[in-house]
Amino acid sequence: MTLAESRTSSATAHPLAMTSAAEVDTVREVLTEAGLLTEHVRYAFFAPEEPPKSEVLAGDECDRRFRAVLLDLATGRSWDTVVSTQTRSVVSQRELDPPRDGQPPIIDTEFEMIEDILNADAGWLGALRERGIEPASVRAVPLSAGVYDYPDEVGRRIVRAFGFRQDHERDHPWAHPIDGLVAYVDLTRRTVDRIVDEAPHPVPATSGNFDDPQVQGPPLDSLKPIEITQPHGRSFTVEDGHVRWGKWDLRIGFNEREGLTLHQIAFDDRPICYRASVAEMVVPYADPAPVRFWQNYFDCGEYMFARYADSLQLGCDCLGDILYTDVVVADDLGNPRTISNAICMHEEDYGVLWKHTDMFTGSRETRRQRRLVISFFTPIGNYDYGFYWYLYLDGTIELECKATGIVFTSGTPGEYATEIAPGLGAPFHQHLFSARLDMTVDGERNAVDEVEAARVPMGEGNPYGNAFRRKVTRLSRESDAQRDADAASARVWHIVNPEKHNALGQPVGYVLHPTGQPTLLADDASSIASRAAFSTKALWVTAYDPAERYSAGDFVNQNPGGAGLPAWVQADRPVDGEDIVVWHTFGLTHFPRPEDWPVMPVDYTGFVLKPAGFFDRNPALDVPPTVSDHCSS
Ligand code: CO
């Protein structure tokens, strides 16, 4: 029985319980009864509308609400609605003003119609014919358009499309980009607005068929199986989304925009984080060529990528004593769609936790670290992203993002791309993620200190010049709290509770360790810098507002820019000792390698949150020695 099936009545649901199929049905019925869901109207977004934090923490009975963004395919009009499944009513509805608000995300229906629109256009067909390419062999996807100097695009629902040649049914088209050609498409009129046709380039011919045994070569035969066994079963329990493991206690959630969400994360009954998610991500490309300068994909806000979450397979995606959880999303028609095995949970041995062999006492102690892994994987177009939250026995929280799949290709490797196969380019790009961390370190009132190492000049008090100290700067307002990482000074951010102290009199805290990799590399004056302003800083701190959820704003697709974080911090609210949200930008700057072709070995990025004075001593002293068939002690 799945989680969704076990709970048929929403009346008994925890305010943060995962969406059930019955709730998706109710929302659709309510929107239909209200006359909002008519023949040409499709869902462009659907997610639980969580109650404000104060109501959840107070243990109030909360209304179950869902947000649905509706798009009329025939007219291009769209509405942002909130529905209560408890009262079976539309709580709010607002028609979007696309030139100001942006457009709803790109939906499945539009993926399905893009090739038909292109194949009805004489300009597109002519450009293919000129290249000697059969239109039926060309695959295309609706790529988010961004906002550029095209006044005629304002307020219209636009995507841009490249063609990729597919030589047979099993052939991966990404290997055969038809470069020098891009179509600008109006999705409402279903017409091509404009064809940009540069001089034809040869279409790269090398196979990208990494799943073809001929391409793979004979299998490596020296690898013996690895099996993970837990003879006494797993050590965690999950009950209607409520997870308990060791001293950890939390809830899991899922929505199509952020994917996995963690809620009310606590250790030893002490709260640490009320809600943690990846609230946005963007993949900006570096190639300024006339056909591709506009390539920037917000996989959360423009594509709702977690609606494509993979159904994971035991033994392939996940190894060990696994607990899978199904999730329910809504399809374009508002029907529930269950993604089985979407969330994977298991324990992992993680090497040595602590150890000492003492020269004086003869003491010889070792404890093994382990972590609870909560993860999901989602493909979006050519790429695949994995999001792995790790909780460790010593109170550490980590997010690891995995990027794999197929790099985006071009047929013109040049200054801004790597030639990864003969004639095949992979333009440079970044993957920039925005974690939204609604911190509640031992309570709701928190503050952030920037802490870094500072050299001390040789002189009085430092006669031999060996000194270095810790420089602590409190970030007191939103305007102070827009910070860059600096690996050279070991810069970290301590999220402290100024009202709670440990036994040593220090404010309890958790420290955010950034990787210190680059934020957005595009020019400050670029369109993407304004539309993805969150990605220009490694850290933002804002005052909590339940309406402030998505780093680049609610409607990212064709958003003119300035939405989300840059808009909210205009108020310059105090963040010292307030109910605050920490936003962390992290990611990969990807100069593709030949080894990334034809399928990319996983690349990693993420961040770590470690207790810093949250405990009075090592909180993992009580971890018992390992009892194992393989450990003789
Ligand atoms: Co990449």
From TrEMBL:
UniProt keyword Metal-binding, yes or no: yes
Enzyme class (EC, first level): oxidoreductase
Superkingdom in the source lineage: Bacteria
Reactions the enzyme catalyzes: a primary methyl amine + O2 + H2O = an aldehyde + H2O2 + NH4(+)
Domain AGAO-like N2: 21-93
Cofactor mode of binding and number, as noted: Contains 1 topaquinone per subunit.
Name of this protein: Amine oxidase
Record lineage: Bacteria, Bacillati, Actinomycetota, Actinomycetes, Pseudonocardiales
